[in-house]
Amino acid sequence: MDYTQSFAISAIGMNIERTRVDVAALNLANANTVQGVGGTSYQPLRVLAEAQMPGGSLASGDAGAFGALVSQGLEGAEAGPLAAPMMHIVPTNVAPRLVYEPGHPMANERGFVAYTGVDTATEMVSMMSATRAYEANVSAMNTTRALALRALDIGSGA
Amino acid sequence: MTAFIPVEALSSLSQQAQAMLAANQPAMVQSEPSMPSVAGSASATSSFGQLVSNGLTQVNNQLIGSQVDLQKLAVGDAQNLHQIMINLEESRLSFQLMMQVRSRLLEAYQDIMKMPI
Amino acid sequence: MTDGIEAVTRSALALALDAASMRQQAIATNIANANAVGYVPQRVSFEAQLGDARRSMAQSGRLDAFALSQVSPRIEPVVDGAGAPVSVQLDVEAAEMARNAVHYQALVKGLSRHFSILSMAAGDGRK
């Protein structure tokens, strides 16, 4: 396989995991925001990574635009050469967390304050697993590089 | 073309070898047992020259194939890095082998020319 | 030795090496300025200029010296579809740096093997 695509695939994986961490951090930052009365509220976001079907030819195309290869894999413009996952950031529709605080200025008529439905524990766990997956992607990229450099040694030495 | 110089050297060598065998054919009749190839020398000369040319063409094609592979690598079309390296090494080895064969043939030719007639 | 296939290979490899070292510089600059405000990431345009050369290579089986002479690697800014500069993405830059390093070493290896074959021919099979 063309080593350009191997590196692009690892870059896509790293990008997705980093986005996961960013999204988890954003959710955690908004964990205690209050839902306005009848107004908009913060819906916790989630990263959705869909697996693409590997298909099409391994056309090298514009091999110079490495960034284009990566973004193509991320947005899934064509499920062609790259068999890497596609990424979407979607808001989840969770019910808000109702807390009984009658003196709160934003409480509704029954005295409940609607906080965003962000589950702190889940966000922390997803941040940790994203970190591990990021390290795994880095390790895959390093291995790819080592293999390619070894292939260059064919025929040298005794 | 520095890579084609040995090509020309070998083909001129093969021509010299053919001429030499044809010229010495009547003289070699007495020493038949030591030169078994003389009996079929008329056909052997053309096949020997053919053999050499075929080998040269093969090595040449291999070298050109490796050059095209390197050009593809430079342009960015490299599909298979290890295959490129393998072909490159193979063509280099066959070139080396051909150079060795040429040296031995030259030595043999010079040995024969040194023989007093 | 101006138009032979060996000369074309040598100039193609040398040009690709130029592009690869320029690319390494661009990536290093991008990484250094990753958090700078208003920084426009750089990229090297080389393979994109080679469309003509690739077409002629598909047809004739080898690279055309003239098509190669029209190509010169240059640095250009990275902009998205609307013309606005994109932000620097560190892991994409890191992966691109690894790829570029492998490519550079492959080019160097190929060039040195190419020269060793030629020196074998020039030296009569002796070192």
Task: Describe, in plain words, how this protein is organized in 3D.
The complex is a heterotrimer of chains A (158), B (117) and C (127). Chain A has 158 residues and is an alpha+beta fold. Chain A is built from three helices and four strands; from the N terminus they run αβαβββα. Chain A has one domain. In chain A, the strands form two sheets. In chain A, strands 1-2 form a two-stranded antiparallel sheet. Chain B has a domain of 70 residues. The longest helix of chain B has 35 residues. The N and C termini of chain B lie far apart (38 Å). The N terminus of chain B is likely disordered. Chain C has one domain. A two-stranded antiparallel ribbon of chain C has the order 1-2. Chains in contact: A-B, A-C, B-C. At the A-B interface, helix 3 of A face helix 3 of B.
Structural class of chain A: alpha+beta
**Helix count, DSSP H or I runs of 4 or more residues of chain A:** 3
Number of domains of chain A: 1
Roughly what percent helix of chain B? Answer: over 70%
Amino-to-carboxy terminus distance of chain B: 38 Å
Separation of the first and last Cα atoms of chain A = 27 Å
The number of distinct helices of chain B, counting runs of at least 4 residues, comes to 3
Structural class label of chain B: mainly alpha
Oligomer: heterotrimer
Which whole number gives the mean pLDDT of chain B?
A: 75
DSSP E strands of chain B, number: 0
Shape of chain B: elongated
Amount of beta strand of chain A: 5-15%
The proportion of residues in beta strands of chain B is under 5%
Unreliable parts of chain A: 55-64
Topology at a glance:
The complex is a heterotrimer of chains A (158), B (117) and C (127).
Chain A: H1 3-29, E1 45-50, H2 66-75, E2 86-91, E3 97-100, E4 112-115, H3 120-152
Antiparallel strand pairs in A: 1-2, 3-4
Helix pairs in contact in A: 1-2, 1-3
Chain B: H1 5-23, H2 41-75, H3 81-114
Helix pairs in contact in B: 1-2, 1-3, 2-3
Chain C: H1 5-32, E1 42-45, H2 51-60, H3 65-69, E2 74-77, H4 90-122
Antiparallel strand pairs in C: 1-2
Helix pairs in contact in C: 1-4
